[in-house]
């Protein structure tokens, strides 16, 4: 249980275009999802907290107009990198926290997707 | 504000030897503590967690961690390392509320020598 699917796993795009990354909780509902950015050989940096049915909460220094987050359902959050530039190239990882626990699913745990590698040319 | 320090950036260990990864945290109250492992180009997998109770926590893949409140530490250990344990390990602290965000340490990269 507690599978988080992230799609695509790798995307290459031209500078100036927008890219959408999906994060789905496959076997649980998640009121809260998180989006992280990770540079090579570095730790995870929280970008924003995504709450179902409400606006995302962005961390200081993260441009909300640049990184659009939508959490339209209890199983799906999307991150759209708008007008991407080479400096946006990074590894983006999402996580989801179950709304309720289950046999193989624990509350208060963040379950992570496999990440999306974005390369902007 | 909460923070996590992993003093060792790299650790090299021989296969079959024991492994200990250090983690120190700063938090105003008793936190939730986690260890995650990340293989190259992958997301994070939860190894173990501490919420309350027994301070020695058993996790997956033969890992264990001990919460020491007096030292603000949550060190990860494994008695005998396998080559497949080569990865990046992250310690994280979270607030005691469902869905609260995590603060990650800088990570420790483990290399396993044959």
User: Which stretches of chain B are poorly predicted, pLDDT < 50 over at least 5 residues?
Assistant: none
Largest interface: A-B, 26 and 23 residues
Q: What's the shape of chain B?
A: globular
Overall SS class of chain B? mainly beta
Helix content of chain B: under 10%
**What is the ordering of alpha helices and beta strands of chain A?**
EEEEEEEEEEE
Name its key features.
heterodimer; A: 121 residues; mainly beta; seven-stranded mixed beta sheet; four-stranded antiparallel beta sheet; B: 114 residues; 12 strands; 0% helix; 52% strand; globular
3D architecture notes:
- The complex is a heterodimer of chains A (121) and B (114).
- Chain A has 121 residues and is mainly β.
- Chain A has no helices and 11 strands.
- The radius of gyration of chain A is 14 Å and the shape is globular.
- Chain A starts with a strand and ends with a strand.
- In chain B, the strands form 3 sheets. In chain B, strands 2, 5, 6, 10, 11 and 12 form a 6-stranded mixed β-sheet that branches. A 4-stranded antiparallel β-sheet of chain B has the order 3-9-8-7, with no helix packed on it.
- Classes of the chains: A mainly beta (121), B mainly beta (114).
- At the A-B interface, β5, β9 and β10 of A face β5, β6 and β11 of B.
Brief overview:
The complex is a heterodimer of chains A (121) and B (114). Chain A contains no helices and eleven strands.
Task: Record the SSE blueprint.
The complex is a heterodimer of chains A (121) and B (114).
Chain A: E1 4-7, E2 10-13, E3 19-25, E4 32-38, E5 44-51, E6 57-58, E7 67-73, E8 76-81, E9 90-97, E10 111-112, E11 116-120
Parallel strand pairs in A: 2-11
Antiparallel strand pairs in A: 1-3, 3-8, 4-5, 4-9, 5-6, 7-8, 9-10, 9-11
Chain B: E1 3-5, E2 10-14, E3 19-21, E4 24-26, E5 32-38, E6 44-50, E7 56-58, E8 64-68, E9 73-78, E10 87-94, E11 102-104, E12 108-113
Parallel strand pairs in B: 2-12
Antiparallel strand pairs in B: 1-4, 3-9, 5-6, 5-10, 7-8, 8-9, 10-11, 10-12
